[in-house]
Amino acid sequence: MRISKFRAFLGVTLSILCLLIITTAANAQAINATIGDILSNPDQYDGKMVQVGGWVSSPQFNASRVGPYTTFNLGDKSGKALSVFRLGILSIKEGDFVRVTLRYKHSDRLLWIYSIEGPGNS
């Protein structure tokens, strides 16, 4: 019994360590951009790691077979927005300003967030 608990602990620890390494690497190579820049020149950012800030709208908290997840629109003052996704329940609410790092793919309906900074999500 002790061995299986140790293996579970080790697995969780390694998963967290890998996530931290991936997040740090993603932030280090991310291009700073605005939502307007991305939507005006999607080919320029396609497939690239981008860091962008905006306001949260329409946050939704759901669950799937993989686990809980959060989706929301990340918008700017002009009303332009990106639809984003992150595993886990994020500590966000309507109107929060957050900065996210994501890999922009013009063809994706939802963009996977690698890291998020903002209220309760450092």
Strand proportion:
35-45%
Please count the helical segments: 3
How can the largest sheet be summarized?
5 strands, mixed, barrel
Whole-number tally of structural domains: 1
Write down the oligomeric state: single chain
Overall helicity: 25-40%
- Quick one: CATH superfamily? Nucleic acid-binding proteins
What's the level 1 CATH class? Mainly Beta
Number of E-type strands: 6
**Physical arrangement of strands within the biggest beta sheet:** 2-3-4-6-5
Name the average pLDDT.
84
Instruction: Return the structural class.
Output: alpha/beta
The rounded distance between the terminal residues' Cα atoms is 36 Å
Q: pLDDT under 50 segments (min length 5)? A: 17-27
- CATH structural fold name: OB fold (Dihydrolipoamide Acetyltransferase, E2P)
The CATH architecture name reads Beta Barrel
- How large, in whole angstroms, is the Cα Rg? 16 Å
Which word captures the global form? globular
Give the SSE string.
HEHHEEEEE
List the helices and strands and how they pair.
Layout: H1 2-29, E1 31-32, H2 35-40, H3 42-45, E2 49-63, E3 68-75, E4 81-87, E5 97-103, E6 111-117
Parallel strand pairs: 1-2, 4-6
Antiparallel strand pairs: 2-3, 2-5, 3-4, 5-6
Distinctive features:
122 residues, alpha/beta, OB fold (Dihydrolipoamide Acetyltransferase, E2P), 5-stranded mixed barrel, 3 helices, 31% helix, globular
Describe this entry's structure for a reader:
- This protein is of the alpha/beta class.
- The protein has a single domain (2-117), classed as OB fold (Dihydrolipoamide Acetyltransferase, E2P), CATH 2.40.50.140.
- Helices cover 31% and strands 38% of the residues.
- The chain has helices at residues 2-29, 35-40, 42-45; strands at residues 31-32, 49-63, 68-75, 81-87, 97-103, 111-117.
- It has a five-stranded mixed β-barrel.
- The longest helix is centred in the first third of the chain and has 28 residues, at 2-29.
- Residues 17-27 have low confidence and may be disordered.
